[in-house]
Design brief:
Layout: H1 2-27, E1 43-54, E2 64-74, E3 79-91, E4 101-119, E5 127-148, E6 151-174, E7 177-190, E8 193-205
Antiparallel strand pairs: 1-2, 1-8, 2-3, 3-4, 4-5, 5-6, 6-7, 7-8
Length: about 210
């Protein structure tokens, strides 16, 4: 119980500190543009790509796909705060289940506040590299039918756990558009163990 209270307090801190600073900036006059809204500076990204279970869970689930949505605010030129919501779907691997016929799928949904650090180049460069990390909640669910000796049994469950993500990537400027490539490792903490998976996505900022 104490660990869960600590996790909730930490997540609130990650949300509220940037929000308070943004609110202060919003109420202060903007000398450059005349606008006090930080929403104009938010950068959104929609991405999709490959999602790969690692470690023990790779015995039960195959690689699948991920679709994600990011939003980041430039706290400074190099440091951005934001968050990510993503949907991962994996197929079932026969190796981890005991049966003659295995069918079904599993899903992992991410809700993760994040911080991003940009390694800035000169203004003429069209590429920018970055590293990022976050802590948030992950909802895992599965629905699998296992047939053994003509008897089919269904296994299904869902759970929400705390997890971490870390990775990096590259921002490529092409004309007036920015494209992102970002590999990321996710570590989800469950009772007595943890689940790890990797995603590699390609997205467009707008």
């Amino acid at each position: 119980m104490a660990g869960k209270r600590f996790a909730v307090c930490l997540l609130l801190f990650l949300f509220l500190v940037p929000a308070a600073a943004m609110a202060q900036m919003e109420t202060a006059p903007d000398q450059d543009s005349g606008s006090g809204s930080f929403f104009d500076d938010l950068v959104y990204t929609v991405d999709a790509g490959l999602s790969m279970p690692l470690g023990d869970i790779s015995d039960f689930y195959n690689s699948g796909f991920v679709i994600g949505f990011d939003a980041f605010y430039p706290w400074s030129e190099k440091i951005h705060f934001g968050g990510r919501i993503a949907f991962n779907k994996w197929g079932v691997d026969d190796g981890g289940w005991t049966g003659n016929d295995i069918s079904g799928s599993s899903m992992m949904i991410e809700f993760v506040p994040m911080a991003r650090y940009l390694f800035l180049n000169d203004s003429a460069s069209t590429t920018t590299f970055f590293t990022q990390a976050g802590i948030g909640f992950y909802r895992f669910s599965f629905d699998v039918d296992v047939t053994y000796e003509s008897i089919t049994q269904n296994y299904d469950d869902s759970d929400i756990n705390l997890g971490l993500c870390f990775g990096g990537g590259m921002i490529l400027k092409k004309g007036n558009r920015e494209w992102l490539i970002q590999p990321m490792i996710n570590q989800v903490f469950t009772d007595g163990n943890s689940s790890t998976y990797m995603s590699i996505t390609f997205g467009m900022a707008f």
